[in-house]
Please model this.
Amino acid sequence: MIYTVTFNPSLDYVVTVPHLEVGAINRTKGEEIFPGGKGINVSWVLRNLGIPTRILGFKAGFTGEEIQHLVEAQGIACDLLPVEKGFSRINVKVRSREETAINGQGPSIGEADLARLLKQLETLEPGDMLVLSGSGPSGCASTLYGRIARLMQQRDIPCVVDATGELLANALEAGPFLVKPNKEELEDLLGRKLATEADLVEGARELRKRGARNVLISLGGDGALLVDAFDGVHRHTAPAGQMVNTVGAGDSMVAGFLAGYLKHHDYAEALHWGICAGSATAFSMHLATGEAIEELVKGN
Model:
């Protein structure tokens, strides 16, 4: 079972406005509501690929209840813990000539809430995997992901960390199975520009020296680069297609990578599945279906 943690899930209100005018009344051409959050996205795509998964995290207020309802309506196991104060955030995504997003804050998560989550994580068993992704709860300590990753390390449960800055840096020494920075995030973490592919490989190897087992660098339309647990370097370009949506593409890459690895136990194949999953979402109006991902895997 792959467990994902979404500390700050959301209701994503996605509207299409053909010609957005700031300061004017705009009318939508289409609108949809989805449960959002990076961990939820990962679980959604894992489910589409036939991988057992369960969503953990927090919910608050009527929006939190609706997030859980929408996830469970898709047949995805969900155990969000209730928080007394505040409400789960609503994010507004505007699709127009450019994509615009307005993201809410969400409820504050206290130490007592985190203690309940850590207790929940004690139920994970050998053979399970944990995915930590996103920015963490409002006001969280930069050591939070490292704290959880070390608990998983002590129990031999592989941990995936898809985060940025200090949240990622402080988790590296716990030996996460996979980290997935993009090029800009890796540059920020290392404090220098990475102009060439050789620079990216060197940067990924620095993260491996600091503890990460596999470093997957997403490169947008240029595909991705992986330095694996045996220090092997793999490079894969992105399939051709029309990009219509960037929301969730990175999360889909994580899900595809994990699904490909579990299916084939081969890092090159895992990268292939990751690229195809991320691209299938980018070519879709929402998160990719299993059929769309498999079609790209077979054709690329």
User: Anything to note?
Assistant: The first strand starts at residue 2 and ends at 6. Residues 249-264 form the longest helix (16 residues). The mean pLDDT is 93.
